[in-house]
Amino acid sequence: MPELPEVTTTTKKLNEILPSLKIVSVWTNYNSSYFYGKENIKDPKYFAKFKKEAIGSKIISSYRIGKNVLIDIQKPKIKDKKTILIHMKMTGHVLYGKYKRAEIEEMVSGERKKVNGWVPVDKGPLQDKFNQYIRLVFELSNGNFLVLSDARRFAKVCLISDRVVKEFKDLKGLGPDPTEKEFNLKRFKEILNKKPVGKIKSILMEQELISGIGNIYSDEALWMTEIHPEEKPSRLSSTEIKELLKNIKSVLKKGIDFGGDSTSDYRQPDGTPGNFQKHHKVYRRKNEECLKPKCSGTISRIVVGGRSAHFCDTHQKLKR
After folding, report:
1. CATH 1.10.8.50 occupies which residues in the chain?
2. pLDDT, tens digit, for every residue of 276-319?
3. Interval 161-169 mean pLDDT
4. CATH fold of 185-312, please?
5. Where in the chain is the domain with CATH 3.20.190.10?
6. Whether the Cβ atoms of residue 258 and residue 279 lie closer than 8 Å to each other
7. Pairing mode, if any, of strands 58-65 and 68-74?
8. Strands 82-87 and 68-74: what pairing?
9. What angle is formed at CA 138 by the lines to CA 134 and CA 140, rounded to 5 degrees?
10. pLDDT tens-digit series, residues 195-245
11. Which fold has domain 4-167?
12. What is the DSSP string of the chain?
């Protein structure tokens, strides 16, 4: 799942491209009876309303809250803005370029079938195999398209009033953003004190406590700080907590600087992969040598709270 650096990379790129463009048309092949009656374009009735609101709107800006991409739009002569919320979930990512309708092959109910879909016009990174699962398409006034590729169809897209964004149910319960200046040592300690006997890996990933951190960056920050992923906050010294905070901010910044992590499906809006996966110290390095200087350890993998955790068996010992 795209984490804070991937979503930040996406919104930064969109802010370079989209402002002042108008939405000309909207298409989707999302359709799931599970979402009928819910605020999600996977409900055809909801999508009809979404489409009506979006078409003719001008794109104002894009920004991030937690792992959510938010795009502000506004209709001519209407004061109130609307906000498109895109949560990319496990395999979703937003792309920008020239597309055309075409017949494509896709798995439908366990069988490969030919269906109507979308393909990029130009050769290049948009043709990456991870970019071919187009589920949502915005045609824009400059002749280009903003699309959502989502192999497993888990992404969520909906439209909300700009005035109540922070009160929207998917956003209001999120914890503070770890890249914000206000996320300081005092705030971090307050969060850890809420779950003194919890497992630190799970706490870092709990979006209601801290928003934006997932598997990759929690593993990397804990490795840097020499903390076992199952360690309890109550056992951490003030020095360790301070160091962990510093490393969380550092590894998230590094992830942003490298354009996100493309170990799996994530791609940047131009279709190219990010590069953070080339700089992993621990994530997905099971059975490999630890890269910490003078450490003779080996990277191990365990499951913590239902999620994988990678750590060094030597310099990340669980305290007793």
Report:
1. 185-312
2. 999 999 999 999 999 999 999 999 999 999 999 999 999 999 98
3. 92
4. Helicase, Ruva Protein; domain 3 (1.10.8)
5. 4-167
6. yes
7. antiparallel
8. antiparallel
9. 135
10. 999 999 999 999 999 999 999 999 999 999 999 999 999 999 999 999 999
11. N-terminal domain of MutM-like DNA repair proteins (3.20.190)
12. ---HHHHHHHHHHHHHH-TT-BEEEEEE----GGGTTSSSTTSHHHHHHHHHHHTTPEEEEEEEETTEEEEEEE-TT--S-EEEEEE-TTTEEEEEE-EEEEEEEEEETTEEEEEEEEEESSSSGGGSGGG--EEEEEEETTS-EEEEEETTS--EEEEEEGGGGGGSTTTTT----TTSTT--HHHHHHHHHTSTTS-HHHHHH-TTTSSS--HHHHHHHHHHHT--TT--GGG--HHHHHHHHHHHHHHHHHHHHTT---SSS---TTS---SGGGG-SSTT-TTSBP-STT---BEEEEEETTEEEEEETTTSPPP-
Q: Which two tokens stand for residue 57?
A: 């709107």
What angle in degrees, to the nearest 10, is found between the helix axes of 4-17 and 238-257?
Answer: 40
Structure tokens, 177? 């953003």
CA distance 282 to 285: 5
* Total-model pTM: 0.95
